[in-house]
């Protein structure tokens, strides 16, 4: 065997059309017969699942130029070979669902009593018991799109929708309507505080009084840019409020505002971003290097870029920013709890789980799953620490970073192990792999496969047809897995 002579190397234009790096063509072999070479291209795991397309090329010894043929245009399916998660329940949904929440009735409850689902114009409330059933006497509005649900105070529930806030407590319902010709465009909640942003650019702040009622602060913040997202930090132990609020705006900025009673909604700091923020989440997370817990602001951008930055709750300063590209879609962030640890679930064209690893520090791991819509924590007698996911495409159960999603269905699952986060995929090869090449500009790898004296598909078909045309011919193509592919004589 010999390397393909230089004058038979494909031209630059052909290389560009075939989307193959030059190094691929330097490793093409030929022998006495036409050499059959198969090139498999696939995306690395940092860009999602291992999926690829196979191109097959025919190199003729007597031809001056090579030519490529698409054998198939369908992606090669990846094989899921992980499966350690515990699926607790799966239920079909009554329509296209965009959000999900699970809530307790009182602060002292250990298990969630309701699962709330919302679509573009409806809200569905389901009670949690031996079975998950839809109910109509919960007090929640069902003819609106729900933006947030929160157990607040000692025994209150809050439902926030575009036209107002509904506070349910001890069987009594109180509604706070927004001013006329305005709507709520963003919301943030915790067990003591509520912040809503109006379409007019105003930010309105509420706190729970000592008697459990919801009190609106007179101080309001007017912003020149439309608010796209909000986030409240957790209430520190022994205190009654989170001291800071993060506000994301269409002008590609994030503002940190004070929630101290003496400086309510005053600006502490501002951070300019490369794109408009689509989601924010302030989470208290451990730092294994300093053995302490600090506040971190997680920022999802409309461009698919994710940022994690340390937040000083006193000065509002943002520092130690890390960035990562997660996908082509705007990012949605959800705080989830896994094995007693606060984690961030980032949803883009693929879902990612961010958590603190004792040895490696903060780690972002892609989940083996298609696009997800929403997520929330869930706790019951059967599943003390679970997560509900809303997905759009299909039901799949995989790996130690387990997840289950279903078409028009929600699934409850628990994650068994955070330490095993390796994403593994196998793609079957037709011939012996000869070389692995990375595309110089695109996120693809190419596997070059070749066999000495292997007949290409066209020649195999011609020889088989010629054998069948003979009077005494009795020829059939044997399956290649047990018998191998036909070879030439040389």
TrEMBL record:
SUPFAM superfamilies: WD40 repeat-like
Annotated Gene3D superfamilies: YVTN repeat-like/Quinoprotein amine dehydrogenase (2.130.10.10)
Segments of this protein annotated with the region Disordered: 71-91, 470-490
Coiled-coil annotated spans: none
GO BP annotations, alphabetical order: mRNA processing; RNA splicing
Gene Ontology CC entries for this record: spliceosomal complex
Keyword Protease appears in the UniProt entry: no
UniProt family annotation: Belongs to the RSE1 family.
InterPro entries in the record: Beta-prop_RSE1/DDB1/CPSF1_2nd (IPR058543), RSE1/DDB1/CFT1 (IPR050358), WD40/YVTN_repeat-like_dom_sf (IPR015943), WD40_repeat_dom_sf (IPR036322)
PANTHER family listed in its UniProt record: DNA REPAIR/RNA PROCESSING CPSF FAMILY (PTHR10644)
Keywords associated with the record: mRNA processing, mRNA splicing, Nucleus, Spliceosome
The organism's taxonomic lineage, starting at the top: Eukaryota, Fungi, Dikarya, Ascomycota, Pezizomycotina
Pfam families registered for this protein in UniProt: Beta-prop_RSE1_2nd
Name listed for the protein in its UniProt record: Pre-mRNA-splicing factor rse-1
């Amino acid at each position: 065997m010999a390397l393909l002579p230089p004058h038979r190397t494909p031209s630059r234009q052909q290389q560009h059309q075939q989307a193959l790096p030059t190094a691929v063509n330097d490793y093409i072999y030929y022998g006495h017969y036409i050499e059959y070479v198969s090139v498999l291209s696939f995306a690395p795991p940092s860009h999602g699942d291992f999926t690829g397309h196979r191109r097959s090329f025919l190199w003729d010894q007597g031809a001056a130029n090579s030519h490529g043929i698409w054998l198939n245009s369908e992606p090669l399916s990846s094989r899921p070979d992980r499966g350690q998660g515990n699926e607790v329940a799966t239920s079909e949904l009554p329509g296209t669902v965009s959000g999900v929440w699970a809530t307790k009735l009182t602060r002292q409850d250990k298990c969630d009593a309701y699962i709330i689902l919302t679509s573009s114009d409806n809200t569905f409330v389901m009670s949690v018991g031996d079975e998950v059933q839809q109910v109509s006497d919960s007090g929640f509005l069902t003819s609106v799109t729900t933006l947030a649900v929160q157990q607040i105070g000692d025994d209150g529930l809050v439902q926030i929708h575009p036209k107002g806030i509904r506070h349910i407590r001890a069987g009594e319902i109180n509604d706070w309507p927004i001013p006329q010709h305005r709507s709520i465009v963003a919301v943030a909640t915790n067990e003591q505080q509520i912040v809503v942003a109006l379409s007019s650019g105003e930010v309105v702040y509420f706190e729970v009084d000592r008697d459990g009622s919801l009190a609106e602060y007179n101080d309001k913040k007017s912003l020149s840019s439309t608010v796209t997202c909000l986030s409240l930090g957790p209430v520190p132990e022994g205190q009654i409020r989170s001291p800071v609020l993060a506000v994301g705006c269409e002008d590609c900025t994030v503002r940190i505002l004070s929630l101290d009673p003496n400086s309510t909604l005053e600006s502490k700091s501002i951070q300019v971003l490369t794109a408009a923020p689509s989601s924010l989440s302030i989470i208290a997370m451990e730092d294994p290097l300093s053995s302490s817990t600090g506040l971190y602001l997680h920022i999802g951008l409309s461009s698919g870029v994710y940022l994690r930055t340390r937040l000083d709750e006193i000065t509002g300063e943002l520092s130690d920013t890390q960035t990562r590209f997660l996908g082509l879609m705007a990012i949605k962030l959800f705080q989830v709890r896994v094995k007693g640890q606060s984690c961030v679930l980032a949803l883009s064209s693929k879902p990612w789980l961010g958590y603190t690893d004792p040895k490696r520090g903060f780690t972002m791991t892609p989940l083996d799953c298609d696009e997800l819509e929403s997520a929330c924590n869930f706790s019951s007698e059967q599943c003390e620490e679970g997560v509900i996911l809303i997905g759009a495409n299909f039901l799949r159960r995989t790996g130690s970073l387990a997840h289950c999603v279903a078409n028009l269905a929600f699934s409850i699952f628990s994650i068994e192990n955070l330490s095993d986060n390796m994403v593994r995929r196998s793609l079957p090869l037709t011939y012996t792999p000869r070389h692995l090449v990375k595309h110089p500009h695109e996120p693809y790898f190419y596997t070059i496969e070749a066999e000495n004296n292997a007949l290409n598909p066209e020649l195999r078909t011609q020889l088989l047809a010629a054998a069948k045309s003979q009077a005494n011919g009795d020829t059939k193509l044997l399956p290649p897995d047990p018998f191998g592919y036909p070879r030439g004589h040389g």
